[in-house]
Amino acid sequence: MCSYLEQELGQTFVINNVTGGGGSIGLTQLTKANPDGYTIAYFASTDSNGNLLFDGVSYDKDSFAPIAEFAADPHMIVASKKSGITDIQGLVDAGSDGNTLWGIGGAWTHWDFLKMEFEKATSTKYKRLVFDGGATAVNNVASGDCAVATPFVSEALAQVDAGNIIPIAVTSSERNPMAPDVPTLAESGIPELEGFESVMWRAFVAPAGTPDEVTKVLADAIGKVCENEEFLKKAEEAGITIEYKGLDEFKAYYEENHENVKAMIESADFEK
Prior knowledge:
Blueprint: H1 2-9, H2 24-31, E1 41-44, H3 50-53, E2 64-74, E3 76-80, H4 88-94, E4 101-105, H5 110-122, E5 127-131, H6 134-143, E6 148-149, H7 153-161, E7 165-170, E8 199-207, H8 212-225, H9 229-237, E9 242-245, H10 247-267
Parallel strand pairs: 4-5, 4-6
Antiparallel strand pairs: 1-8, 2-8, 2-9, 3-6, 3-7
């Protein structure tokens, strides 16, 4: 993305990969930057609730100026061959007693909130098992140590194609072109899952106080990149689903998403 933004804006981007704290360290640094549009950050679905998710985090949704969304990646629900789960109804049935292990690829990421959304929709309960990343979760499903997990589609395909795990459904509203034979949850015929969709969006934000005329320039440039055929091809190869929301649309969605995630956190049996 950044190399293409350089072309659109005529500016050099210096990428600073700040690790640790589930992204909270890097986002804390962003909140202290000059709000002039020259410092922006990658941002994902649950990041505006960092102060509720992680100890020692002080920022909240008002600490950032939304710019634009550029991707929305669905998960694939996969099951162990030892679990006995082969379809969506079987997944629902397995959640009746709260003992089925549901793998999470990293604590309090979108993986967790997908699980909560599914449980709420279907009145089920699963036992949360946290792994260090998606690949580890998928491998534990393949070995039979975990019953189900919800990796991103690109993370699941190798083990699915090898026949080591069972693809149950994708969590987008439409089937994913990388896995066209895997149904959506909404296709299950289960009334509670009608219209169900849960994707992790990816976006850019700036520090709070960045003027709208500045974020508008950035948002428009991101929009142009999202129409670039070369960029789209590379995104597809990387398993990234491009979905663009411009400044005004994303600002509204940012607020709505924040409140939805906040409500789930406050209603959950949540420990930081």
